[in-house]
Every structure is written in C-alpha cells, then in structure tokens.
Amino acid sequence: MLEWFTSPEAWVALATLMALEIVLGIDNIIFISILVGRLPPQNRAKARRIGIGLAMVSRLLLLFSLSWVMGLVEPWFSAAGQEISGRDIILIGGGLFLLAKSVHEIHNSFEPSEHRAASGATAGMLAVVLQIAVLDIVFSLDSVITAVGLVDHLSVMVIAIVASVVVMLVAAESIGQFVDNNPTIKMLALSFLTLVGFTLIAEGCDVHVPKGYIYFAMAFSFAVELLNIRLRNRTAG
What we know:
two-stranded antiparallel sheet; TerC family protein
C-alpha cells in the first residue's frame, strides 16, 4: 500500500494533488464561512469545525467507495438526446442549491440591519450544518473525481485530502472573520458562488468549463478588491 514512498513520481503527484485539493476547497471554505456567519458568535467556531469535519468525512467516504463513484459517471438514462448520469444529477442539483442559496444571501445583504438580525437569530445550528453537509457532498464529488484522475495510489489520495482539509481547518476562521469584516468581499464571494453554481449546472449538462479561468477570475477580482480596501483605509485614515 505504501510502496509509492520510494517513487519520486508519486511524491510529485502527491504535491500536485494537495495543491489542487486546497484550491478546490476554497469554494467550500467560502460557503461555510458565509453560512456560519448567520449563527450567533459563540456558535460559529463549533459549526465551522463540524462543517469542515463533514467535508473530510464525505471526501473519504466517497474515496473508499470508488466503484460506486465511478458508477456515477455511467449514463443512467437519456433525456432530449442527452445521456444523464448520477454525477450529472448531483452536480445539477448541487448547482441549483448553491445558486439559490447565494442569490438568497445576496438579497439578504440588501435588507435593513434590523431585518438581517432577526433572520440571523432564526438560523439554527442544525439548519446551517445540514446546508453545509449538502454542499460538502457536491464539492467532495468534484474533489474525489479529480483525485482519482490524477493518482493511482489510494493512500496518496487519502493523505492529500486529509492535508487539504487540515489547511481548510486552519484557514477557515481567519477567512470567515475577513469576510464578515469586509461586506464588499462577502458580496464578491457570493457573486462567485453564483458563478460556481452555474458552472456545476453546466458540468452536469456535459458542458465543460475550464476551472482555471474561473479561479483566475476569482483571484484577479479578489486582488483588485484588496487594493480597493487598502485605498479606502488610507483615505479614511
């Protein structure tokens, strides 16, 4: 199982997969941070840990069910001349859910502060964790399929996924605080989550969208917004 330890190619594959898993986890962290922000401050850290823990569990469960995951790629039925697989159904359903949730959060951002406070008070721990769990499954499917396509050794996949989740766990709190303290960053994150939702739906309809373009657009927009924040802080100072 660990014969790859002496293979330089396997170590390169491990480093590459870890980097990709961390990048794929960015969407997960942003979504968790936004949902956790609806909870009272004393519950946020616990919900964040539970959400990221569920992300790791769902990834590992899918990884150890490779035959089932690979079976999801096979067509289940045809509709309007289009072959539909289990993966397509999960991606389309997850994309619709993410799209609806992102638009809902954007709409709430324009509500008066009193209304937001009231709606935030009704956001229970169980409801938030369930929403996180649903999207964890969708993001995990993408993550595991990427891992299977890059690496042959199961132990390498497990190490990469666990390492990426540890990075998510370490970074999630600071990312969440940064998003909460900067409303424009939160709006930018929600806008990109709607884009990710559209991308998932497109992937489910067998329209391939290169993720490199999406992540480059996210990184570029984020960098521009950081410059705007710095400029506003200097002007205010």
